[in-house]
Design goal:
By secondary structure, this protein is an all-alpha fold. The protein has a domain at 19-100. The protein is built from two helices and no strands. The protein has helices at residues 19-49, 58-109. Helix 1 runs antiparallel to helix 2. The two termini are 42 Å apart.
Length: 127
């Protein structure tokens, strides 16, 4: 049974820096990217399917103009956010690689223990 991690000191977050944590987080960002892309497209298609619901009077024309501008801005903002997710995932994967390299460098830098001394073969039986 694994030993549970000790609690973090008060006021400090618990930081898990195992290499697998970076891989898991990178996968989550890629999944979120795909979900955001799918959900955004579904929502924008649903809004487009509403058709011209504002009417043709002055109020309807004003609404349509402002609605169109706001919708374009929202789509731009969501697309910019969506496009950041893969870059974050790539950087997390790079962090995992750097973490692995640092671990191996640390292991390599540890003092070496020489081979144990050669002992003569026992010739007598213990008494």
């Amino acid at each position: 049974m694994p030993t549970p991690d000790p609690p973090a000191p008060p006021g400090l977050p618990i930081t898990d820096v195992r290499g697998g944590t970076f891989t898991k987080a990178a996968g989550a960002f890629l999944a979120e990217h795909n979900e955001l892309t799918t959900d955004t497209r579904r929502i924008l298609d649903a809004l487009a399917a509403l058709g011209d619901f504002a009417g043709t009077d002055e109020t309807g024309n004003t609404f349509r103009k402002n609605y169109s501008t706001a919708l374009k801005k929202a789509e731009t903002y969501v697309n910019a956010l969506r496009d950041v997710y893969p870059a974050v995932a790539d950087r997390l994967a790079d962090m995992k690689t750097s973490f692995d390299i640092a671990n191996w460098a640390t292991i390599e830098s540890l003092p070496k223990v020489s081979d144990p001394p050669k002992l003569a073969p026992q010739t007598a039986k213990p008494t």
